[in-house]
Amino acid sequence: MGTIHPIPLQQRFWNEWNASYREHDIGNVSARQAEVIVGWLKSLGQKDLRILEAGCGTGWFCPQLGEFGQVTGTDLSDKVLERAQQRFPQVSFVPGDFMTLDLGRDAFDVAVTLEVLSHVADQPAFVDKLAGHLKPGGLLMLATQNRFVLRRFNRVPPPAPGQLRRWVDRHELRHLLDSKFEVLELFSVSPRANRGLMRLVNSQKLNRPIQAIIGNRLERLKEAVGLGWTLMALARRRS
């Protein structure tokens, strides 16, 4: 599981990280995650949902979620959320440690969480808490780093002080979710690699002529076989 950093140290790390990176650039990986989740939400055909985003960071995704209902966003980054509240007054932001926040039992129709699972100390407890906030039959829309791809095909800097890290593969993710959820979809998105043979397979220069002919089908094929940076899961809370 790695080193467990105290909450104040984690809070300082995420305040600084969000201010340095996420407040300035969303990035293609996060944009693809958002694209998938917006697609799931559109398929529900509802505009009056109660939506929780756990680990919303700078709140960048909350306005898009707000197109489908009322949004509550939580994050450890209290200073970042102060600025987010000014930018997005229509969103209810709740700063603090998600594991200790009282957000109501059976209070939400949908829970969204992007790349948070790998940064919490107790992953089963995190999943249980998400389930507890959802109404029976409510939906979890989750994105998390794909350990198989990150470890085998990418060089990633070691965690900084205050940054927890425990990636999962698709089998571990399904096992985590199975206790409280029925997994409806589980797949990878955003093929990325910066080392080994996969670096060549994902080379934009090499792929550009192919994409000009077949569009995004090659990227979607790589996602389908599990070579994406991100694992996406859609799951329904068990009654």
TrEMBL record:
EC number annotated for this UniProt entry: 2.1.1.222, 2.1.1.64
GO molecular-function terms, A-Z: 2-polyprenyl-6-hydroxyphenol methylase activity; 3-demethylubiquinol 3-O-methyltransferase activity
CDD domains recorded: AdoMet_MTases
InterPro entries: SAM-dependent_MTases_sf
Pfam families on file: Methyltransf_23
Keyword terms: Methyltransferase, Transferase
UniProt-listed SUPFAM superfamilies: S-adenosyl-L-methionine-dependent methyltransferases (SSF53335)
Enzyme class of the recorded protein, top EC level: transferase
Gene Ontology biological process terms in this record: methylation
Protein name, entry field: Class I SAM-dependent methyltransferase
Species annotation: Chelativorans intermedius
